[in-house]
Design a protein that fits this description.
With 128 residues, this protein is an alpha+beta fold. The protein contains 2 helices and 5 strands, in the order H-E-E-E-E-E-H. It has helices at residues 2-19, 122-126, and strands at residues 40-52, 55-71, 74-87, 92-107, 110-121. It is elongated, with a radius of gyration of 21 Å.
Length: 128
């Protein structure tokens, strides 16, 4: 397993150097006038309501995103959110949402993206 990892890192590092990405250009601090840590923030929210057959269900979701420009061709983003399903007859269920995304646009026609996302029931965080 270590040999596979070593070969993988060697191939990736040689590809990065071959494309012309210089490690000195990677930074979490974007070039701004004040020089402070400057990620981009965005978010979205959605709500839906469905009624029929004597039941009414509502759901709401919010996801916030923090985007970093690590290099002119490399971006990283983190998502954190919450989704809730509510039955107006007493049932309720929630989930904590999360994702990590890394994108490298090597050229106009070539993009490598690593994405990992998932959710946890909110009961696993509160212990109830």
């Amino acid at each position: 397993m270590r040999i596979v990892l070593l070969v993988f890192l060697l191939v990736i590092s040689s590809a990065v150097l071959g494309i012309g990405l210089e490690p000195s250009e990677f930074s979490l601090i974007q070039s701004s006038d004040d020089g402070w840590f400057n990620p981009e923030f965005s978010g979205w929210a959605g709500f839906s309501l469905m009624s029929g057959g004597g039941r009414t269900l509502g759901s709401g979701t919010y996801v916030g995103t923090m985007l970093f420009s690590l290099h002119p061709n490399v971006t990283a983003s983190f998502d954190l959110g919450y989704s809730r399903l509510y039955d107006f007859h007493g049932f309720s269920s929630g989930r904590v949402l999360g994702a990590v995304d890394l994108q490298w646009k090597a050229s106009d026609n070539f993009l490598i993206q690593l994405h990992c996302s998932g959710s946890l029931p909110d009961s696993s965080l509160t212990g109830f």
